[in-house]
Amino acid sequence: MRSIMITTSAIKFAGARGSRAQGTHGLRCSRAIQARAYESTTEYDYDMFTLGGGSGGVRASRMSSGFGAKVACAELPFGYISSESAGGLGGTCVLRGCVPKKLVMYCSEYAEHVKDAEGFGWEIGESKLHWDKFMEKKRKELQRLNGVYGNIMGNAGVEIIEGRATIKDKHTVVVNGKEYTSKYICIAVGGTPHMLGVPGVEHCINSDGILELDSVPKRLAIIGAGYIGVEFGGMFNNLGSDVQFFIRSDKVLKGFDEEVRDHIMTEYDRRGIKINTGCSPKQVKKNDDGTLDMTYSSPDGDVTGTFDQILMATGRTPNTANLGLEAAGVETNKQGFVVVDEFSKTSVDNIFAVGDITDRMALTPVALMEGMCLAKTLFNDQPIAPDHKNIPTAVFSQPHIGTIGYGEEEAVEKFGDVDVYSSSYRPMRNTISGNESRGFMKILVDASTDKVVGIHIVGPEAGEMMQGFGVAVKMGATKADLDSCVGIHPTAAEELVTMRTTSRQWRGKKQI
Fold first, then answer.
1. Which positions ≥6 away from 126 have C-beta within 8 Å?
2. pTM over 0.85
3. Is 342 annotated as a binding residue?
């Protein structure tokens, strides 16, 4: 067991290692905590013991410590692929999700940039990806970020205990056979990739594994088409893989606006990505040459295809198994997620849960918000419930998606009277490069109030655009507010403040 304790004031840690000057991808320490608001007089070893050092757990721990609480956080040793014995400070997002995924995205998009450059007169010549060099740099960056999180926690005064933690009772946590008592317990152990129970599934990879491939597969099958599948499908298509999706439904990205779903499917078809609908895997067999034969059901009967890798992108499950929740009396739902109230409190009055372990929104910024709200509630005399309404998000598909609020179908069902503004466009760069990719934008307005209730963007840097418009929607912007804003020209974003004519209108839930 490794235990680290650095007692440094909350004021000092704002300028410590892991600060903005160190370059931490937005991980700089907060200057908001200027004074300790909580006096630690607990009869227990700690005021709060956090299980899990991912986004939510780190935020809850260091903020609580900054307010004056005595805090410990248990996390597994660092590993690129998660397991019962490997994890690491930073959690899924930093080590096996958002960060490495986006690094792969950047790597993959250079292939398209090289092609586009020729349209502008550049003679590039033959280009070649040295995947091993990229992987070496990616791994070094993840190691660095894992260390940054350790510094952030240590400098905030949080004790880091390395090992697997379980809950013995409502005030006791066990790590490596040693018991620790705490006034409060915060469960932030996140989730893990879900694998379908088909014969031969052990030959498939999940979202952890695809980020640790030794080479780019020539033929990649992807089971599922949510965030994870759609993102990796676009990336590996750019990298040169022959990508095929196998999904039970008729479209990708369930839960998104229908036009957005249609647009992405059109774009993926144009890129040569095959989306097989009405299909489910039945069996996977590994051949002597290392290739994989997958038999799957289809509308035309059972079919067998051969691939170099098969990615199971079929969702995530909460890490609640063997955590000791039953012994402590913590309630979970049918899917295994921890049930919490609006303040992240579980069925046990001193045990709380944040992040992907709860059945709310499995997004890193949401976990950060939940962790911050919990710290303020418990140790800053500032009860605050996390607000899960109007949360902007992005899908790093090819092209990117940015979205906030309702999709058209949801908006019509909710408000009845809805004005729809939409536009399909060709990015300026593509008019010369020859790239056929098109963008799409959509604004949904509650006609009775003129309030913007949804914005959807498909195109280059859609996530960057959406962050700013997300603030506007969160503040209750109206269509008149958007119309009154002068656009920045020439940009794609100006389209959202220059659309004046409705594409269609709904009144009483009927299109007119």
1. none
2. yes
3. no
Q: Of 220, 277, 281, 219, whose CA–CA distance to 247 is shortest?
A: 277
CATH class of residue range 196-313: alpha beta
pLDDT at residue number 34: 46
Instruction: Verify whether residue 130 is a known catalytic residue.
Output: no
Q: What is the pLDDT of residue 35?
A: 58
- Paired residues of 260 in beta bridges: none
CATH number of the domain at 393-511, please? 3.30.390.30
CA–CA gap between residue 200 and residue 204 (Å, rounded): 8
pLDDT of residue 287: 98
> Which burial class, exposed, middle or buried, applies to 106 when counting CB atoms under 10 A from its CB (0-12, 13-18, 19+)?
exposed
User: Would you kindly state where each structural domain of the chain is located, as residue ranges?
Assistant: 46-192+317-380, 196-313, 393-511
Ranges in the chain, pLDDT < 50: 1-34
Look at the chain and count its residues.
Answer: 512
Domain 46-192+317-380 shares a fold with domain 393-511: no
Question: What pLDDT is attached to residue 42?
Answer: 75
The tokens for 444 are 């949904």
Yes or no: say if 244 and 221 are a contact pair by the CB < 8 Å rule: yes
| Fold annotation for 46-192+317-380 | FAD/NAD(P)-binding domain (3.50.50)
Whether 419 contacts 479, CB under 8 Å: yes
Look at residues 15, 57, 70 and name the one whose alpha carbon lies nearest to residue 189. Answer: 57
Element holding 65 (H helix, E strand): helix 55-66
Q: Which of 25, 130, 263, 489 is catalytic?
A: 489
CA distances from 91 to 114, 276, 359 (A): 34, 33, 18
**Is 301 annotated as belonging to a binding site?**
no
- Count other C-beta atoms under 10 Å from residue 361's C-beta: 16
Q: Is 224 annotated for ligand binding?
A: yes
Say if residue 289 carries a ligand binding annotation: no
CB 320 within 8 A of CB 328: no
**The two structure tokens encoding residue 301:** 């009967």
Closest to 497 in 3D by CA, of 426, 443, 429: 443
Query: What are the φ/ψ torsions at residue 180 (nearest 5 degrees)?
Result: -130, 135
Of 184, 189, 180, the closest CA to residue 321 belongs to 189
pLDDT of residue 504: 98
Beta bridge partners of 51: 74, 187
